[in-house]
Amino acid sequence: MIRKREDPRRAIVEVIQRLGRATQLHLDERQRHFRITDIVLITASLLILGGAAFDVYHARLLYQDFNEIITDMYAIHDHLVGVDNDMADITTNMQAFDSHMTHMENINERMKSMAAIMPQIRENTRLMAGDMSSVDENMRLVGDAMLILDTRIHAMLGGVGIMRNHMNQFSRPMSAFTPFMP
After folding, report:
1. Residue 134, helix vs strand vs coil
2. What is the mean pLDDT of residues 143-158?
3. Of 100, 123, 145, which residue sits at a domain end?
4. Which domain holds residue 179?
């Protein structure tokens, strides 16, 4: 039996065919990966572009909010200038009020003296009513009125004294601030 000898070129052709198939598979695989990479890159680019648009939108909103805050701060400043002027007026009024409070002592003393005199006036009126027969009825009415007036003066005396104490208590803290206020 004679053996037929194999052509040495055939082995090279088979190797080259195998290399060609492997290269084609490799190229196909590579092409598939390039498509996947392109899809991922396009998707990521779109997401980044969307995020950038979202950021620009929020930056615009932030800019508008800051403008509103600044406008409000200018308005607050204008109102604070008005409050400063009002505080200066209050300080002036408190100083005038403090100077008027010194007269409360005199009013209280006069009310006390009137309260001390009123019983005597009432008693004198009662005595005159007994002596005058022609005006007896009128004097009785005047005596009753003086009794009511005496009672009211006594009632006012306590209220005026309390008011004087309250006014002194009220003006005492403010008079401490008067030297510091403009």
Report:
1. coil
2. 78
3. 100
4. 102-182
